[in-house]
Design a protein that fits this description.
By secondary structure, the protein is mainly alpha-helical. Helices cover 90% and strands 0% of the residues. Keywords: Ribonucleoprotein, Ribosomal protein. One of its GO terms (cellular component) is ribonucleoprotein complex. It comes from Flemingia macrophylla.
Amino acid sequence: MEAACLYKFSLVLVPVYVKNMWEKSSWGKNLIVQKKRASFNDFDRFKIMLANIKGASVVRHDPTKLKKASS
C-alpha cells in the first residue's frame, strides 16, 4: 500500500521539480524571454525602444550623475 502511495506522490512531484529546475536554468530563462518578446505587440516594442533610447542618453551625456545616484 505504501509503495503505491509513494509512486503516485512521485508522479506528482517529479514533473514539478523538473519544471522548476528547467525554469532556473539559463536555457529555460532564454526560452521564457523569447516567448515573452514574441508576445509583444507593436506598441510594447515602441515603449521598449523609447526606454532604451532614454537610458542610453543618460549614460552617454553624464555618467557622473549615475555614480552619484547609485551611491
